[in-house]
Specification:
alpha/beta, Rossmann fold, six-stranded mixed β-sheet, 11 helices, 12 strands
Length: about 300
């Protein structure tokens, strides 16, 4: 949308500065302004990034206003990742499949939506965790929006085996059927959150992903039981929550000898990949952006 400015640091906002932003509710806790403004400054782009808290009744007006103002692009966070789709002109195939958009690029008035949540999760696994996704057997706990994003991206990355565990089995089966129909994954199964079923899947899994916003007693008990029976691989658990930084599920899994991460890595890499949608000719300054949120 714009070219690097001539020796223009981020603080030099002028009449040609191109805005980008975040919409959601709430957003005042967001680290996105630090992430993107550090990247703009690094590349000497005459751009700025702001966070806009939008209530539900004003979402349509907000999107129309951003379009009318010629904003370069914007990110979308909860609770609007699904609802935003109806206001966009084009949506990527992956975003359509997972029914979620978190990145919108303004191409001369045409708003184009993408999802970087799942791809960011996979990039986190490869870049920060050293995972070889093509060999992993994966257990995803939950079947909602975050689970869909993760499951589809893992399937597109070439994992061979995926199990979806969910309290409502029909939702897990629906996601499994969609994955079978839309990807080339070799094996996908659905199961419940019953302790006995979970014990087997946790024992077999190289990677466990928790997409739920709460701890499930049956999952905690299953992890402990598998550990007592020496059945837990030296695998990886990623809990997509990041508040608290260490969840009870993470504590249980690590206590049994596994490796654990929270969801901050996914959040970071989805932002990196969103920057690359905003500026496809530029490489995101990963370490600059990382330092911006670690300091």
């Amino acid at each position: 949308m714009t070219s690097p400015a001539n020796n223009s640091p981020l603080s030099n906002i002028d009449a040609r500065t191109l805005p980008y932003g975040l919409i959601g509710d709430p957003v005042r806790h967001s680290l996105s302004p630090q992430l993107y403004n550090s990247a703009f400054d690094h590349h000497r782009l005459n751009c700025c990034y702001l966070a806009f808290e939008v209530d539900a009744q004003n979402l349509s007006a907000a999107v129309n206003g951003l379009r009318a103002l010629g904003i370069g692009g914007f990110n979308v966070t909860a609770p609007y990742k699904e609802e935003i789709i109806s206001f966009l002109d084009e949506v990527s195939r992956e975003a359509t499949l997972v029914r979620s958009v978190n990145t919108v690029v303004n191409h001369r008035g045409s708003l184009q939506g993408y999802t970087t949540d799942g791809p960011g999760f996979c990039r986190f696994l490869k870049e920060d965790c050293g995972e070889d996704l093509s060999t992993d057997r994966v257990l995803v706990i939950g079947a909602g929006g975050a689970a869909r994003a993760v499951a589809f991206s893992l399937a597109f990355e070439g994992i061979q085996s995926l199990v979806i565990a969910n309290r409502t089995l029909s939702n897990a089966r629906e996601l499994a059927r969609l994955l079978e129909a839309e990807t080339s994954i070799a094996e996908v199964q659905a199961t419940t959150l019953e302790k006995v079923a979970l014990e087997k899947e946790i024992s077999d899994a190289d990677l466990v992903v928790n997409s739920l916003a709460f701890d499930v007693p049956e999952v905690l008990e299953a992890i402990e039981e598998v550990g007592r029976n020496n059945g837990l691989k030296a695998g990886l658990l990623v809990d997509l929550r990041y508040n608290p930084e260490v969840t009870e599920m993470m504590e249980n899994y690590e206590r049994q000898g596994g490796r654990v991460h929270n969801g901050k890595g996914m959040l970071f890499w989805q932002a990196v990949m969103a920057f690359e949608h905003f500026f496809p000719d530029l490489e995101a300054p990963v370490e600059v952006m990382r330092r911006a949120v670690e300091n």
